[in-house]
Design goal:
With 100 residues, this protein is an alpha+beta fold. It is built from 4 helices and 3 strands; from the N terminus they run ααβββαα. A 3-stranded mixed beta sheet has the order 1-3-2, covered by helices on one side. It is globular and about 35 Å long.
Length: 100
């Protein structure tokens, strides 16, 4: 990933992949999420977080986009083992990207 895009910045990688990143005033319990608007992915990040948390959140959501295409969390009922596994994968992707 880093070699392909010549950067480890999740913001730059999103830009290279045509994924828009925007900020919104979200509840403190929500770091970020992904939406699809007109067939384009958008990463929405909580504007009130510190810069380092915004970086990790962007990388986490990018991990979901790249690793979990087609999974719809909205239809999930509660936090089950499968969702927790997907969250751990996205966390691991974020950690690897931001700490490379």
């Amino acid at each position: 990933m880093i070699d392909t895009h010549n950067t480890k910045s999740p913001f730059e990688i999103c830009k290279n992949l045509g994924i828009n990143v925007t900020y919104a005033d979200l509840p403190d319990s929500v770091s970020g999420f992904i939406v699809e608007i007109l067939k384009k992915k958008v990463v929405v990040i909580n504007i009130s977080m510190p810069a380092d948390e915004k970086l990790l959140t962007c990388a986490h959501e990018l991990g979901h986009i790249l690793l979990h295409e087609g999974i719809n969390y909205i239809n999930a009922h509660g936090i089950d083992e499968e969702i927790m596994s997907l969250e751990k994968e996205a966390d691991y992707f974020s950690h690897c990207l931001c700490n490379e």
